[in-house]
Protein: Diguanylate cyclase
Amino acid sequence: MADLLETLAQVIDKDGMDESDIEQFVRPLLSLLTEVTALESTYLTAIHEHASTQEVLYSLNTGPSPLIPEGLVVPWDDTLCKRALETGERITCDVQSKWGDSDAARQLGLTTYVSHPICDVDGKVVGTLCGASVERKEVSLEAQRMLSVCARLIEWQLQRSRLLRELRTQNQAFEASAHQDPLTGVLNRRGLEKELRKALAAFERSGTIFYAVFIDLDGFKQINDTFGHDAGDRFLIHVCHRLNEALREDDVLARVGGDEFVVLLRDQQSTAMQIEDIKKRLYAVLVGDYTIDDFVIPYEGASMGYTQVKRGDSSEALLERADDAMYAEKRARKAKRSASA
Structure:
């Protein structure tokens, strides 16, 4: 009994496991049940409701050939487990007399059978923990209690795994939303800062060069005043779509203000001339007409400035240089318009 309790304690102590580790959790329990019940086979099954089948996931067999092999799939209506659940009788030492209508049990030659349901977090039966033998064997109350304890442990582990998986999914969704601009779907300032930290770390570690492009949508306030804020929001969505279409796979686009965007160009092979060409391409894709429902917004273009990462740069210093370069271009564009007026 001391060995059994030690085995049970070791199983319970497997903290930090997830659903992918369930086999490591189950197999020691099957070994424990085999010792306690003295049955030829102990096994864990899954009930596939949509396929109306029951599958043996893990089994431990003591005979020369497996009585209940892993991977065995049986029509659910033909199983002893279904009959046990329906009648509430979870144990029998005479399978043929009690449930002789089961073809699977008859073909396997089962005489002794015991089971306990496995439920998910919603209380739905999703599987069973079972023991079976060709020979007639008396299963003691102690063994039945141990079967119940093991079933509850597996049930708890599966429910815990599901809850952990859901928690991870929710955390990932929360993290994604925390780094995403809700209107345009591109990164927000927080998301940009995360990408900048990674890019700066890569630059300091291996010299991977990148560029930051600051974009300001000239005339956006006038668009809002003329066409309304709803049209302005949809204009911003169109702007992001056009920018994303012009960017490369590894480039990053973020919205950092109402009408301000930052692009990270991550390509250490690019020269300053090539980056200038990319900037011109980004400028060109933004110029033109934007169709919003039944009206068209003509747009003359944005101001852009860029800078290359330098040793010792912080995110703030890099963005400030790009912002300064953008405002220098904005002033030049304004002076050019004034001169031509």
Q: What stands out?
A: Residues 141-178 form the longest helix (38 residues). The CA atoms of residues 210 and 267 lie 6 Å apart. The chain has two domains: 2-159, 189-340. The chain is about 50% helix and 20% strand.
